[in-house]
Design a protein that fits this description.
single chain; about 260 residues; mainly alpha; Fic-like fold; 10 helices; disordered N terminus
Amino acid sequence: MVKPTGITPPILNELLLSIADRKDQLDRLRPLATGALKQLQKHYDVELTYTSNAIEGNTLTLRETAEVIEHGITVGGKRLKEHLEAVDHYDAVLWMRELAAQTMPVGETIIRELHRRIVARSEPDIAGIYSPHRRRIAGSPVVFPNPLKIPDLMEDLGRWLETAAPTPATAFEAHFRLTAIHPFSDGNGRTARLLTNLLLLRGGYVPVAVRPEDRTVYLDALEHGSLADDPAPFQTFMHRRLDATLAEYLDAVRESLPDVR
């Protein structure tokens, strides 16, 4: 597990101030009109599905992902699994939003259920099941824990989550810790990103997408955190994405509410 250094990089301090200011602006606009909120959420939910799957190699474009989700249209030349991944992930996003509005503690059971939903149709044989095999990422020197240690590590992560405050720092640490354990045979990154967004929504923030163009920086930050025991680059990267997403969200909300300046 990565241990906090107690030292916050200057850039992260600046991001924390900007995030707090943008969240305060968003809070002053709440409650949002139901119609405007539904349209905004649907846009972001499709984007979350597209980006999270694209990072893992799914070749559906954003438009194609929306067509599969909204109309059940299959895309010529694309694998069936890619279509199923889009449907699975979108369903998991909707469930995640429902859960975010509840008070049920987020723990190990929730993580396993998130994973189960993410691969329910595309890889049902591994849905919600910890891998009994050693896991490796091609081209990465990171070594994941022995599979025999996964149950204890996940129990520890779950206990920590159940009492941790739903802050951005907590959300991003949970992401890192889950990917460092890498408990499932596949779908670890997608599960970690949805877990992050569940915690962000619980804290009153907005869901964050890690875009395909962010892939190299994102994966390098995760790898650096594991190899150097240094969470700062990953925390900085994710806080930067949250800050940018809050700015985009605020602009979208103001456009949908013409009386707001």
